[in-house]
From TrEMBL:
The protein's name in its UniProt record: AraC family transcriptional regulator
Top-rank lineage group of the source organism: Bacteria
Gene3D superfamilies to which the protein is assigned, alphabetical: Homeodomain-like (1.10.10.60), Jelly Rolls (2.60.120.10)
InterPro entries, per database record: AraC-bd, Homeodomain-like_sf, HTH-like, HTH_AraC, RmlC-like_jellyroll
Keywords: DNA-binding, Transcription, Transcription regulation
Cited Pfam families: AraC_binding, HTH_18
Organism: Streptomyces chartreusis
Domain HTH araC/xylS-type: 199-297
UniProt-recorded Gene Ontology molecular function terms: DNA-binding transcription factor activity; sequence-specific DNA binding
Length: 299
């Protein structure tokens, strides 16, 4: 994400960015929390929700129903009842139809919480997974903390604004600490699933996809036969190793095309295609559009 963000800053921003909708916030505080669903105003009314767009604030959605598909940075996630989606500032995303979204949504403006709390809650840990699956022990506590935050948010009569805001910050911190612990432990669990053939392959692809697209090269690197690698990847994902590699390359290419104004040739080189024509052909084969057309659709 750091490389993409740096390139975006240098090359311009191709996707419309929407700020925190402060005008919809009760008493103008730097957060909102409420119900999602048809007929409820819980998002910017002028945002192209079903097209790719970017936000400059945090969004956390706790789903009461599902499944709901949501795209974040060109990766598709499927959320079910009890799942949470955490979208961080600067990430591009796309809704799959807001009428399908049921549950509670929290939005938070950067700067609403003090720096110490931001660091303690990992608000800008872009390496953590956006889709979280709390277990039966954690889900009730998260729901309770979020419900308490919503009650405090809606109680605008019992405290002066300064104290109301202070209470909101404390309640929000309590919820985010639980959420951050869930995100960190989920990532840790994923890392410790065991050094299986597939997890080793997946990690090797993540490190090397920008320069290595060869299944045989990964098999040699990991010390497996090509046949063993094919069996392991197909069992874990239903895909071939080559399909898995290509999918990761396409995802990175989409991110660079969306987040930056890098020339098409440079995008291709960044994902392992020194020849721009070969990159365009590869991209078209996997997406049915050219890189230029994909970028144009986002503008």
């Amino acid at each position: 994400m750091a490389d993409i963000a740096d390139a975006s800053a240098q090359g311009g921003d191709a996707i419309r960015t929407f700020p925190f909708p402060a005008d919809q916030s009760v008493l103008g505080v730097g957060m909102q929390v409420g119900r999602m669903g048809a007929g409820r105003t819980w998002h910017a009314t002028d945002a192209p929700l079903e097209r790719v767009h970017r936000i400059d604030f945090h969004v956390v959605m706790l789903f009461a129903e599902g499944p709901v598909r949501h795209m974040i940075d060109f990766a598709e996630y499927e959320a079910n009842a009890g799942d949470l989606l955490w979208i961080r500032p600067g990430q591009v995303h796309r809704f799959s139809g807001t009428d399908d979204y049921r549950g509670t949504v929290l939005t938070m403006q950067p700067g609403f919480l003090p720096r110490a709390t931001v660091e303690a809650t990992g608000l800008y840990r872009y390496d953590l997974p956006p889709l979280l699956h709390p277990d039966e022990a954690r889900l009730p506590a998260l729901r309770s903390a979020l419900a308490q935050l919503q009650r405090e948010y809606e109680d605008t009569t019992t405290l002066p604004l300064s104290l109301h805001t202070a209470v909101l910050r404390h309640s929000l911190t309590a919820f985010l600490l639980r959420l951050a612990h869930l995100a960190a432990s989920s990532a840790e669990a994923a890392r410790h699933q065991g050094d299986t053939t597939f997890t080793l392959f997946r990690d090797a692809v993540e490190r090397g996809f920008a320069r290595n697209h060869s299944v045989s090269a990964y098999a040699d690197q990991l010390g497996y036969s090509r046949r063993t690698l094919v069996r392991a990847v197909r069992a874990a994902t239903g895909e071939t190793p080559k399909g898995f590699i290509d999918k990761r390359v396409i995802l990175e290419a989409k991110r660079l095309l969306a987040h930056t104004d890098m020339p098409i040739g440079r995008v291709g080189a960044a994902v392992g295609f020194p020849d721009a024509a070969n990159f365009s052909k590869f991209f078209h084969q996997h997406t049915e559009v050219t890189p230029a057309a994909f970028r144009s659709e986002l503008r």
